[in-house]
Design brief:
This protein has about 400 residues and is an alpha+beta fold. Helices cover about 15% and strands about 40% of the residues. It has two domains: about 110 residues, Sandwich (Immunoglobulin-like); about 180 residues, Jelly Rolls (Sandwich), CATH 2.60.120. Strand 21 and strand 22 form a beta hairpin. It is elongated.
């Protein structure tokens, strides 16, 4: 089924002040009014401060939760505009490399992006039965969670086969990877999770870890979580379909992540689409400085969607791998008696791998300044991780 995968070759790698002159009498009047107004505002401020203090006391709000680092490593909606292949190459802040065995074979390829469907990759075999592949691949990234929405537009094809997938592969040159993929043939669609190992030229061993032929779904939301060593989890449409911590993956980080199509069909060019790509440092969020023995809850629309226990060191790690990122929600920390101890200031954007710390609540203006600075962490993470030199990626052909 995935004979095409053998053609995946090694990686050799390589975002006035205006002044007014006023008469003395009018100035005195304005000053008098200012004093009266100032006194009134001061009373209002005192009353508001009392109410805020009481509210904090009622809520246990003497602590706040601040994001310290962002877990976002790479993000691309793949719906950035209507771009042809030349425009994609020229406007490439994330450092995607477009290549594949089809290029070496001089096989027909096409790729473009639109705002509605995302990134389109197309390929056509030069001869029936001879696989040709074409991909978009990231630079080296150190991240454990990788996500994309894959669309296989065909229910069946007239001859041979065509597949599309999200591949996570070691960047050391060996053709060792895991993939969440869909293939189509005259008999219909098959979704699979495959682990492959090989040498520096090709994959030589394939293991199907999960497959589903009964579903004729054309679009699926795929999340791969792996450490590259022994652990692998795969979510389809945010449901866990495969999990193991005893694999021999042989995929040391950093990784390259591929969006790839392959076909053995000469009759016409076949396309697949991709959108909403992101990689995060981890599927978990970490909260430090919480009361030992307490509980941390991730809240979404007023309900707790994930919960974690605080260990003796005051830290809680909560797995959010099944959720779509960024997750809009809040974080609440409770002590061992169930009383609210700390919370974020309203809803925030949460990415896997984010780290937070419980801190003493400070003045309103200081916290607002901190919020402004910390809100830029995700943007800073994107800018930092996309300022990667784009390296020439060469794939050899058997």
């Amino acid at each position: 089924m995935f004979a095409s995968i053998i053609l995946i070759s090694p990686i050799c790698l390589a975002y006035a002040i205006a002044e007014s002159k006023i008469s003395g009498s009018l100035t005195d009047q304005l000053n008098t009014n200012a004093v009266a107004v100032g006194t009134s505002n001061s009373d209002d401020d005192d009353e508001k401060a009392k109410k805020d203090k009481q509210k904090e006391k009622d809520e246990g709000g003497h602590q706040t939760i601040q994001k310290t680092t962002s877990g976002l490593v790479l993000f691309d909606s793949l719906t950035n505009g209507n771009f042809n292949s030349h425009q994609l190459q020229a406007n490439n802040p994330n450092g995607w490399v477009y290549s594949g065995s089809a290029v070496a074979q001089n096989a027909p390829i096409n790729y473009f992006e639109d705002k509605a469907q995302g990134l389109h990759l197309g390929v056509q075999a030069v001869a029936d039965g001879q696989f040709a592949g074409f991909f978009a691949v990231t630079p080296h990234i150190s991240a454990q969670l990788h996500h994309a929405v894959l669309t296989m537009p065909y229910s069946a094809i007239s001859d041979h086969s065509f597949n599309t997938g999200l591949y996570v592969q070691t960047s050391n040159g060996l053709i060792n990877y895991v993939t969440c993929a869909a293939s189509v043939s005259p008999s219909g669609i098959l979704w699979e999770i495959v682990h492959a190992t090989g040498n520096f030229t090709q994959a030589t061993k394939f293991e199907t870890l999960w497959s589903e032929a009964s579903s004729q779904a054309h679009t699926r939301d795929c999340t791969i979580v792996t450490n590259g060593d022994n652990f692998l989890q795969v979510y389809l449409d945010h449901k866990l379909v495969y999990s193991s911590n005893s694999l021999d993956l042989q995929m040391p980080s950093p990784f390259n992540v591929f969006l790839e199509v392959q076909t053995s069909t000469k009759s016409k060019m076949l396309f697949a689409t991709y959108k909403d790509f992101y990689s995060t440092a981890s599927p978990e969020v970490s909260i430090a400085g919480a009361p030992a023995g307490g509980t941390v809850k991730i809240m979404h629309k007023g309900s707790a969607i994930a919960t974690g226990s605080v260990n003796s060191e005051g830290r809680a790690n909560i797995d959010l791998g099944k959720f779509h990122f960024p997750l809009s929600g809040s974080i609440k920390v409770f002590n061992d008696k169930g009383k609210l101890d700390a919370k974020t200031k309203g809803d925030i954007s949460i990415w896997g791998g984010d780290t937070f710390v419980v801190t003493a609540k400070e003045s309103k203006h200081h916290i607002e300044d901190q919020d402004s600075d910390l809100a830029s962490l995700d943007t800073m993470a994107i800018n930092h991780n996309t300022k990667v030199e784009t390296m020439l990626l060469v794939r050899s052909v058997n």
